[in-house]
């Protein structure tokens, strides 16, 4: 193999083989800082390197993949190297075992399992996915989203963290153990409800579909109680909580339903929804068009088809090139 997985594995292996090497330390630190999930990978690899058993809480049959790899490696003569500081001979074939294991997991699973001893991390790439939590709650993850929760989730607490991206939570009611979502600088607490959390670079947005949700800045008394249809916006390094009541035809959950609904919606709002849904930049170069209203429903349609319908319905000009859509 000769890909990013190899490079990542090599960084950790070099450090484990020579932990006193300052260059290896710096490379490892830079790699961990680049992605919160990399710390999870390092902790698991370190535990395996030292001979510790990894937890087996993954919902996938990863052990079967390990067994297949071990069968191949057992048939290959092992080469031994110098002993690490623990005083044991460590086969250099560990490096190739981990590289092969990482490749199998990356190819076979939509989810990435990166759990260290105390919690599990799940991440999506370009696809959406869903997860059933131990307490029966369901989580639907948008693309490019990463969450983590304790392996003992549901027993003493129901704390979950969203590091980045967007997730919809359908929470099983349990009045004795509150369901808490931690996002950067923000904490959301519920008993049983359905709500959406979006952790973006500018801040966190919380939208409630049913039930009641408390959204608060961590470490402060500043919080708000949200009811169905209400969305709260909490900015990074901010103190104010802005709330907005949305009508039923809002498109906040369009990423999950795959349906965009516009009910006499101003073109400026349409542009915002389309940009978020399709991951493009939309420029409304003629401000006079902002108040034009669109009445339409698009069910999982390609962007160019949507733009063509808008062009004909509203009698406007639209160009789409690469990642930029211009309306004029």
Describe this protein's structure.
This protein has helices at 4-17, 22-34, 36-49, 62-74, 93-108, 254-257, 267-278, 303-314; strands at 119-123, 129-132, 138-141, 146-150, 158-170, 179-183, 186-190, 194-199, 203-210, 213-217, 223-226, 230-235, 241-245, 259-266, 281-284, 293-299, 318-321, 324-327. Helix 1 (4-17) runs antiparallel to helix 5 (93-108). It is built from eight helices and 18 strands. The protein has 328 residues and is an alpha+beta fold. It is globular, with a radius of gyration of 24 Å. The strands form three sheets. Strands 1, 2, 3, 4, 5, 6, 7, 8, 9, 10, 11, 12 and 13 form a 13-stranded mixed beta sheet that branches. A three-stranded mixed beta sheet has the order 15-18-17, covered by helices on one side. Strands 14-16 form a two-stranded antiparallel sheet. InterPro entries: FecR, FecR_C, Ferrdict_sens_TM. Residues 260-326 form the Protein FecR C-terminal domain. This is FecR domain-containing protein.
Could you outline the blueprint of secondary structure elements for this entry?
Elements: H1 4-17, H2 22-34, H3 36-49, H4 62-74, H5 93-108, E1 119-123, E2 129-132, E3 138-141, E4 146-150, E5 158-170, E6 179-183, E7 186-190, E8 194-199, E9 203-210, E10 213-217, E11 223-226, E12 230-235, E13 241-245, H6 254-257, E14 259-266, H7 267-278, E15 281-284, E16 293-299, H8 303-314, E17 318-321, E18 324-327
Parallel strand pairs: 5-6, 15-18
Antiparallel strand pairs: 1-4, 2-3, 3-5, 4-5, 5-8, 6-7, 7-10, 8-9, 9-12, 10-11, 12-13, 14-16, 17-18
């Amino acid at each position: 193999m000769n890909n990013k997985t190899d490079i990542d594995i090599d960084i950790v292996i070099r450090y484990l083989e020579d932990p006193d090497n300052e260059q290896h330390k710096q490379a490892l630190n830079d790699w961990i800082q680049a992605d919160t999930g990399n710390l999870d990978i390092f902790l698991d690899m370190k535990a395996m390197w030292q001979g510790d058993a990894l937890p087996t809480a993954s919902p996938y049959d990863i052990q079967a993949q390990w067994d297949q790899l071990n069968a191949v490696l057992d048939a290959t003569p092992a080469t031994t190297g110098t002993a690490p500081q623990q005083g044991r001979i460590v086969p250099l074939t560990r490096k190739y075992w981990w590289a092969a294991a990482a490749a199998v997991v990356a190819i076979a699973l939509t989810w990435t399992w990166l759990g260290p001893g105390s919690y599990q991390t799940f991440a999506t790439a370009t696809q959406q996915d869903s997860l059933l939590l131990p307490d029966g709650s369901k989580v639907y993850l948008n693309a490019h989203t990463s969450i983590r929760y304790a392996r003992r989730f549901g027993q003493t607490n129901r704390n979950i963290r969203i590091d980045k991206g967007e997730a919809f939570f359908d929470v099983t009611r349990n009045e004795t153990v509150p369901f808490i979502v931690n996002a950067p600088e923000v904490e959301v607490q519920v008993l049983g409800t359905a709500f959406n959390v979006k952790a973006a670079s500018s801040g966190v947005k919380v939208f409630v579909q049913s039930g009641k949700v408390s959204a608060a800045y961590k470490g402060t008394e500043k919080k708000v109680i949200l009811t169905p249809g209400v969305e709260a916006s909490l900015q990074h390094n901010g103190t104010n909580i802005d709330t907005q009541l949305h009508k039923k035809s809002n498109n906040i959950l369009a990423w999950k339903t795959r349906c965009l609904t516009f009910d006499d919606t101003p073109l400026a709002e349409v542009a915002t929804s389309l940009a978020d849904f399709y991951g493009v930049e939309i420029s409304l170069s003629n401000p006079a068009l902002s108040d034009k209203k669109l009445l339409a429903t698009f069910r999982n349609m390609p962007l160019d088809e949507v733009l063509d319908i808008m062009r004909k319905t509203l009698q406007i000009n639209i160009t789409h090139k690469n990642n930029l859509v211009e309306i004029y």
